[in-house]
Amino acid sequence: MLMESEIISDHIETATDPAAFADWPTEIYQEMIDRQMNGCVGSVLVSETKDVRVWHLNVAPGDRCGFHRHVNPYFWSALAPGRARTYFSDGRIAETEYSTGQTQHYHYGPGEYMLHSLENIGETELKFLTVEHLSNPGAALPVPDSAKLARSC
Prior knowledge:
Elements: E1 7-8, H1 26-34, E2 44-48, E3 52-59, E4 64-70, E5 74-78, E6 82-88, E7 93-98, E8 103-106, E9 114-120, E10 126-133
Parallel strand pairs: 1-8
Antiparallel strand pairs: 2-3, 3-10, 4-9, 5-8, 5-10, 6-7, 6-9
């Protein structure tokens, strides 16, 4: 049976008081500051049209996907079970267990965003498919060529 997913509007402000990050390792806090406008919401951009970007996100046990900013409505779907720790730009740290097929939808209006990092704290590789809907005119962040899937002849 197909489960209906709730659409979440999860705009998260970036805390301006450094005390909000007192429990964070210094290098993770500095990375958040340095990568506030990183538009790479996955490991590799596998497809892009004027309407959508399709990403694969793979994070090995003990590794972390660096800070990135979501500005477009999007959804992710877990392709494998796993456990993760997420660092949010408001200072929160959350731990989550994912199951295969689990899917979550998010919506952001003009000027809204979510800035976060995902650390694999489990024993299996985290694998996600993420699809961004490029429906917020002018909101899409640039993606460097190095993040795009290499095409061969």
